[in-house]
Design a protein that fits this description.
alpha+beta; Aminopeptidase; about 30% helix; globular
Length: about 190
Amino acid sequence: MSHTRPAPLAEGPRVGIRPYSYADAAEFTARARESGELHRPWLFPPTTDENFAAYARVLIEDPTKAGFLVYERADGALAGFININNIVEGGFRCGALGYGAFAHAAGRGLMREALALVVSHAFGELRLHRLEINVQPRNTASIALARRAGFRLEGFSPRFLFIDGAWRDHQRWALTTEMTAADTLR
């Protein structure tokens, strides 16, 4: 089990993305605890070192997942996380995005910049064709991020995911490589 931090995968003007490492446990869990009010009831990132180790292990070792920590370039502080889950290769070449900002970074546009870096990595190095975001309809901040990042609303799925003890309705948002190519032509 490595305890060193991996090199950045990509950097923008204010943020960079890099894979998870076990060495991130203390900062990640402290930031998650500080952000509980922001995250609830939408997501529940790990708040203990033990839970982080299990969470990170899956993102590090499972080939159907890719996890990215978002850090601020100015000071290296973790600003959030973006994960691609359920990666399917072959003819589908798709993944499902999940993300969260930490409270100190929320509302500053950092996650928008980071999401653009992850999308570029997913459509480039990971060779995916499609990314999906499933969002609970009342999670207006997450919906706004999906919309600003160019994802289109594709539908509604009642009782789609089991979160916080109940099956929750979700909106389905998606982005394909063709949609990002069209954006660069504008």
